[in-house]
Amino acid sequence: MNYSKEQLTEARRQIDSTVHKLRQTVLTLEAKGDPVRYRSQLTLARRRIEAFCLASDLIGRELERLAGE
Predict the structure, then answer these.
(1) Fewer CB within 10 Å, N- or C-terminus of the chain?
(2) CB burial string 6-28: b at 16+ within 10 A, e below
(3) Residue 22 and residue 44: Cα distance in Å, rounded?
(4) Closest by CA position to 15, among listed 60, 67, 65
(5) For every residue of the chain, which 3-state class applies, written as one string?
(6) Are 57 and 13 in contact (CB under 8 A)?
């Protein structure tokens, strides 16, 4: 499926915003008194950060490809 530059740019902006919020969540959970209690939430947040960063990078590559056309 082909996406417009505008669609890709907006998707990347939304992903980057979500990553920022997830990083803040990780910091908040790590600062809590009993980090073991939040281990599953921390693991999930970290995995989501990795997945969203990968998606953002792939969108960036597609935007670069579109700019080269």
Answers:
(1) N
(2) eebeeebeebeeebeebeebbee
(3) 10
(4) 60
(5) CCCCHHHHHHHHHHHHHHHHHHHHHHHHHHHCCCHHHHHHHHHHHHHHHHHHHHHHHHHHHHHHHHHHC
(6) no
Q: What is the pLDDT of residues 3-36, one digit of tens each?
A: 999 999 999 999 999 999 999 999 999 999 887 8
Residue carrying the six token digits 């990078």: 57
CA 25, CA 43: separation in Å to the nearest integer?
A: 11
CB atoms within 10 A of CB 59: 20
- Does 1 score more than 90 pLDDT? no
**pLDDT band at residue 56 using 50, 70 and 90 as cut-offs:** very high
